[in-house]
Design a protein that fits this description.
Elements: E1 6-8, E2 24-31, E3 37-43, E4 51-54, H1 58-67, E5 70-77, E6 81-88
Antiparallel strand pairs: 1-4, 2-3, 2-5, 3-4, 5-6
């Protein structure tokens, strides 16, 4: 199995729509002060709504994450609207093998 990027929250429900055959959501992501990028996240296969995984482009996300000091991810939540998460990823220890 390849690399997978997942964002999980303890409380809250991601708001999924049907952009594809799977319940999905467009995520706006900014690495450091770079350009805003769009990634598509999908609902977990078991129907959980408290986590979202990148449908594709995990490798692109991880590659940029490795080079970054901070990342902001904007997602939409049921009855909460848009929320922006900011992560300090400088010195992040990866659980995947380095290239």
């Amino acid at each position: 199995m390849g690399k997978q990027v997942v964002l999980k929250v303890e409380r809250g429900q991601f708001l999924f729509q049907y952009f594809t055959s799977l319940p999905s959501q467009h995520l706006a992501v900014r690495f450091d002060d770079g350009a805003l990028q769009t990634f598509i996240g999908s609902q977990a296969n078991d129907g959980r709504t408290n986590e979202i995984g990148l449908s594709s482009d995990s490798d692109r996300f991880i590659e940029q994450l490795r080079k970054s000091k901070k990342v902001k991810i904007e997602a939409t939540f049921f009855q909460e609207g848009t929320v922006v998460f900011e992560f300090d990823v400088h010195g992040l220890e990866a659980k995947w093998p380095a290239r």
